[in-house]
Amino acid sequence: MASGTRELTVDLGERSYPIYIGTGLIAQLGEKFAERGFPVKSPILLVTDSAVEGLYASAVEESLRARGYTVARAVVPSGEASKSLEMLDTLVEQALKAGLDRKSTVIALGGGVVGDLAGFVAASYMRGVRFVQIPTTILAHDSSVGGKVAVNHRLAKNIIGAFHQPEFVLYDLDTLASLPMREVRAGLSEVIKHGLIWNAEFVAWCDDNAERLLGLDPDALGYALYEGCKVKSIVVSRDERENDLRAILNLGHTIGHALEAVAGYGELLHGEAIAIGMVGSARLAGRFGYAADIEETTERIFRKFGLPVRIPESCPTDEIMSAMLHDKKFSEGNMVFVVPTAIGSVEIRRDVPSAWVTDIVNGLREGK
Amino acid sequence: MASGTRELTVDLGERSYPIYIGTGLIAQLGEKFAERGFPVKSPILLVTDSAVEGLYASAVEESLRARGYTVARAVVPSGEASKSLEMLDTLVEQALKAGLDRKSTVIALGGGVVGDLAGFVAASYMRGVRFVQIPTTILAHDSSVGGKVAVNHRLAKNIIGAFHQPEFVLYDLDTLASLPMREVRAGLSEVIKHGLIWNAEFVAWCDDNAERLLGLDPDALGYALYEGCKVKSIVVSRDERENDLRAILNLGHTIGHALEAVAGYGELLHGEAIAIGMVGSARLAGRFGYAADIEETTERIFRKFGLPVRIPESCPTDEIMSAMLHDKKFSEGNMVFVVPTAIGSVEIRRDVPSAWVTDIVNGLREGK
Ligand SMILES: NC(=O)c1ccc[n+]([C@@H]2O[C@H](COP(=O)([O-])OP(=O)(O)OC[C@H]3O[C@@H](n4cnc5c(N)ncnc54)[C@H](O)[C@@H]3O)[C@@H](O)[C@H]2O)c1
Ligand SMILES: NC(=O)c1ccc[n+]([C@@H]2O[C@H](COP(=O)([O-])OP(=O)(O)OC[C@H]3O[C@@H](n4cnc5c(N)ncnc54)[C@H](O)[C@@H]3O)[C@@H](O)[C@H]2O)c1
Ligand SMILES: [Zn+2]
Ligand SMILES: [Zn+2]
């Protein structure tokens, strides 16, 4: 491992796995495969997207080939639409043609889209083969912990999937240099979320280090991704199959998901939508009588990172409300909110009056 | 439970589940759901096929509705072609429209096709919901144990799937009355296979009770299905994720699968193809010097059950051989055979000379 590499273990009993975070890691991928005894006889499928392929696929392949591995490359179009059953079908075809067997590995090289899609291929091909993730976005720190993999159905996001833990995650910070700035900010929104639900000190650190993070300083970024993954990892370890605790990870997501749906997928990035949602949750905290600094701090920090904190004009309140009510059928009849009780801690509330929510959504407008 | 109901536990730690085998069981389904605390608020998806729907779907629904459950019915065309990603897409759409949530159940009412397909829906919808099987074929005793669920890809059978254990299996023998006689015989082939790999006494019992079994005598059938499920259950309990021991379940399948592929899927039923395959394996046993009565007994018993014991003219030896060689890539380069060492026990051989196989395939012809 290069000096400065951080290592974190996601603790899930016999499905535990390490996340390596640092620079220059792709060059060491083949070594990692060999150390862990991945069989050279079994071909590897490298799944990536059209934006990432030209940048990093060859380096990944070279690293593996240098250790004697056979790699087939599968490229999907960049974007959420690739998380589909049609793409699963195509990738399975490529896996078959490349001769993948039960001891083969599927590698995801890309953001959360490639991670979720390739992860579901790994979960279902021959009823499950090895999976390795090489995240190339900041947001993907989130999907690199917890083993949730899925594709979308035209009627619902992430509705067809599995829990399938990777063998390991290799987070090479060098790949983040090419990420569009808007994606950087949106990814950091989810990093900050992990602070807000669990770790006040880390929130303060992000606040103090905004400039280094936005400048992609490897040491600051490595530390932030490590802390973000750690919070998620603690939560997931205690609740692998998503019962109760894991729900706290949805801070800002009740409003955020509704905004994404109403704005039209792609208009608002996920990280942007949940930044607005987290400001909304902070206002809910105020209604419940929790300290007023929650709202002030939450809003200030997201502004500092250049993230939106107000609902766009294109999203009328009634549509947002009905999108949220539509969502509720997935949680047995109640709107569920994650509400901060202080910076660094939250609680789950199923008793939020919908009038409060309407008020808050109305209030979260430019100029208010 | 009705008197005469047999109960077997498939022992898989926290994923253990019971199989109930007997008559009049569908009427008790609602009661079973209630006893086990399946929530009435969460809708149920009943998946069945076009041949089974008109016969038993209403009885299943009535039994559940009498206990307050909401059931949506989803019907797929009868036949192997329904095990597809397209059908998964359609069923997920129906599940969404019916409002299925994380606490919902998917029920498979039908043979192995419906079981495998509905099981994969249950495994992947919202990353996994409850699954209950109501097998209506004899062959499905096999798929009711082990949790293997899957759909096909146009390039390979059962290639996209999961391990997803049911909550329980309700084997109502009354449903078997409508099964075409050819399906009865083919299903019994797999029952006898379970005897041949594990239990010589049970093979002798099948031999003595062929007439009762073919006449669908409920007591004989209940016993045979119980014993068949028990053998499979012992094997999978010791090897849930299919490593080594589980391979013994493939007695007759190396040749059998090749015959199915060459004859064209649907020409030979699976149970018919493996009957021929088991006669082939018995001949292999002879080559390895095991007792000659293996071959004699194997062939006699399948003849008695009206199953084919010779390879059809439409399957040339070279095509069978190449189908088998094509299969081998899934097991790292060696043709794998399950070879009987006596009636009731087998061993796995990776050292079978392909010349022996060619000989045996050539020899398994009408008139020889
Ligand atoms: N499984 C989970 O637990 C989990 C958690 C959070 C999000 N997700 C999923 O993740 C997805 C969003 O992830 P994302 O934001 O990473 O999206 P993404 O994968 O679409 O990546 C964002 C964009 O950046 C491009 N890109 C990626 N890496 C790049 C790089 N290094 N340089 C230049 N361009 C690059 C991509 O092509 C894409 O256009 C969603 O589908 C979401 O459902 C899953
Ligand atoms: N998951 C496993 O472990 C496992 C094991 C063995 C086989 N399988 C799968 O099972 C499938 C074969 O199972 P099958 O033989 O039950 O096939 P099937 O489900 O196609 O049923 C055979 C035929 O009988 C009809 N039928 C079913 N029940 C009936 C009834 N009670 N009355 C009248 N008609 C009825 C069906 O419509 C169909 O036409 C294959 O797809 C195979 O891959 C899975
Ligand atoms: Zn999120
Ligand atoms: Zn079989």
Automatic annotation (TrEMBL), chains A, B:
Pathway the protein takes part in: Metabolic intermediate biosynthesis; chorismate biosynthesis; chorismate from D-erythrose 4-phosphate and phosphoenolpyruvate: step 2/7
Cofactor(s) essential for the protein: Co(2+); Zn(2+); NAD(+)
GO molecular function: 3-dehydroquinate synthase activity; metal ion binding; nucleotide binding
Gene Ontology cellular-component terms listed: cytoplasm
List of residues binding NAD(+): 78-83, 112-116, 136-137, 148, 157
EC number(s) on file: 4.2.3.4
KW Transcription (keyword) present: no
The organism's place on the tree of life at top rank: Bacteria
Pfam families in UniProt: DHQ_synthase, DHQS_C
Residues binding Zn(2+): E190, H253, H270
Main localization of the protein described in the UniProt heading: cytoplasm
Residue stretches making up the 3-dehydroquinate synthase N-terminal domain: 75-185
InterPro entries: Dehydroquinate_synthase, DHQ_synth_AroB, DHQ_synth_fam, DHQS/DOIS_N, DHQS_C
Biological process, per Gene Ontology: amino acid biosynthetic process; aromatic amino acid family biosynthetic process; chorismate biosynthetic process
Record has Zinc as a keyword: yes
Domain (3-dehydroquinate synthase C-terminal) ranges: 187-329
Subcellular compartments: Cytoplasm
Keyword annotations of the record: Amino-acid biosynthesis, Aromatic amino acid biosynthesis, Cobalt, Cytoplasm, Lyase, Metal-binding, NAD, Nucleotide-binding, Zinc
Catalytic activity annotation: 7-phospho-2-dehydro-3-deoxy-D-arabino-heptonate = 3-dehydroquinate + phosphate
CDD domains: DHQS
Cofactor detail note: Binds 1 divalent metal cation per subunit. Can use either Co(2+) or Zn(2+).
Top enzyme class: lyase
Function: Catalyzes the conversion of 3-deoxy-D-arabino-heptulosonate 7-phosphate (DAHP) to dehydroquinate (DHQ).
Family: Belongs to the sugar phosphate cyclases superfamily. Dehydroquinate synthase family.
Protein name per its UniProtKB record: 3-dehydroquinate synthase
Species in which this protein is naturally found: Cohnella phaseoli
Gene transcribed to yield this protein: aroB
